[in-house]
Every structure is written in C-alpha cells, then in structure tokens.
Here is the input.
Amino acid sequence: MTTVPDEASDATFFTLDSVTAELMEVDAVFRACMNWNYGHRDSRVWSLYEKNKVSQWNATTDIDWDHDVRFGAELSEENGAKLASFVVGDDSPVPRELLTDFRWEYQAWMCSQFLHGEQGALVTTARLVETVPDIDAKTYAASQVADEARHVEAFARYVDEKLGVVYPINPGLRTLLHDLLSESRWDIVYLGMQVVVEGLAITALRLASSSFGDPVIRQITKMVAQDEARHIAFGVTALNGMYADVTAAELREREDFLLEAIRLMSRRFMLREIWERMDLDVERGLRFARHNPMMAAYRQMLFQQIIHVLRQLGMLSDKVKELLLDENLVRPEIMQLS
Ligand SMILES: [Fe+2]
Ligand SMILES: [Fe+2]
Here is the structure.
C-alpha cells in the first residue's frame, strides 16, 4: 500500500476541464474470469440486481436543473444555519464575515470529493465485473457501474454549471483509490469501495441532502444516497461469511488494509484544502478540525455505517477498534457494546 504525507495537499485548483485532463494511471496485475455456470437467479445479490433495474433515474431529466444557484450569494437563514454550522464558535478559524464564503467553499469541497469518489466507484466496480467469480455478482456490479456513471454525471454537471469551483481530490482519497486500482484481490476491492468509501459516502450524502444550501444539490444527494444503500448491501452480501474460513495470514492482510484505509479516510476530513484556498490560518484550521467537538461528532457519525458493516462481516478486530478509538472515530461507550 502506498502512503501520502500526513494531511498533504497539492493545493492546486482546477477548472473541471483541467481536472479531467489530468490522469491518474495505475499499473495493475489481476486475474479476470468468466463463469459458465449462469446460476439460478434466486440469490440475494440477484434480488438486489432486480431492485437496481427498476431504480434507475436519469440525471438529465429527473433533476430540476433550472434552479438558480449563485456561488457566494448570501444564504437564507434556514440553509445558512444548517450548512457547516460547526464553524460557529470561539475556536473557529473562520471569521464571522467569511462565514458565507466558507459555507460555499465547504459545499464545493464536499461536492468535489463526492465527484472524485464517484469516479473511483465507477472504475473499481468495473474491475469487479472482471474479477469476481460469481455470475450474479458480475451482473450486479455491471448495474452498479451504470449507477456510478450517472452519479459522476450529476456531480460533474452540478460543480461545473452551478458552482464553478472544483477542488482537487483529497490526498487520502486519492491514495485509497490508487491502492484499490492496483489491488488484485477482489474481496479487498469490496472492503475498500463498498464498505469504506461508500459507507462514508452514504452518511455524508444523507447529511448533505438535509443541510446544503440549494434544492439542486439536495435532490442529487438524496437520489444518489438511495443508490448507495443498495451498493453497500451488495458488498455486505458478497462478503458475507467470506472471512470465516480464511487463514490467519489472509485475515491479517485484510486487517492491515482496513487499518490503512481507516487512517486515510480519517485524515480526509481535516478540510486543509479549504483553509488553504480561503487563505486562513492552516495550522489553526487543522487543530480545529481535529479537536472541535462538532467536527469529531461529524466524523463519528460518518464512520457509524462502516463500523456496523465490519461488525456484520466479523472484521471489527481489536486492532481496528483500537484505531477507531485512537482516531476518535467512535465514542468509547459505543465500541464497548460490540
Ligand atoms: Fe455512487
Ligand atoms: Fe456506489
């Protein structure tokens, strides 16, 4: 697994054109397979596939794109109060007069990371189509790829047409996606994407759909979150029982992967890129993001879904629990219940 410097940032900002022009290329060696046993279409994965087929939506026609969104405009009392309310307080690095600017930057940062994460889901799930042995899992993964393409379409259009600001991919997310694309073991791709990345995303999307400042992004995040719930169920179902009979060495490799993935995702929410772009005191911003109780509670909320799934899969080991506690990603009383 590759690593990045702690909370590193390239701090380069792009238009959408230049973001898409910059490639992240990853060399990979993996085993693709075809399966001549076409199954019985009565599995849990197949029923998720049936749900996917009838839950497709069209980002062009099912989103109301007509709503006027003006980046930087004053937000209404209701939306302004909800969005990024965690930066209001004595320890906040954001001066009161920059609060509206911060809220828009935060929304742009979140939407940019959603966008990059969606592309990660698109490409890694396409890999699963080739590598998973079961035909029903291949079939479901192909339908998830279509979902992810639509998610990329919706977020790309939103940041391009409505915000006009695209943040580069967060270094922690970039490293995790790089690792997943070079990964040859398909179950680890599930752990990284369907459990960790999508587990974080679903809570972040649900929170965004009730707090972001305009109806376009609220509609997008709500519809994407509905799809993500099925994708997570696919990962849980595909991995169900998988780790009961593996060797201690194989189990340790999965645990090591999870430890690194959790570390990378924990650093993702330090908001360094925003502090830098707004020319605020970066050290103060990082300190605030790490220690402010509302920021910590936000991260704990984001990690709830991952913890729930890891427990279901039997992968919530002592080391994983320890790391989650050390990084303050879970409240001790909740961990003791497991
Ligand atoms: Fe997605
Ligand atoms: Fe997804």
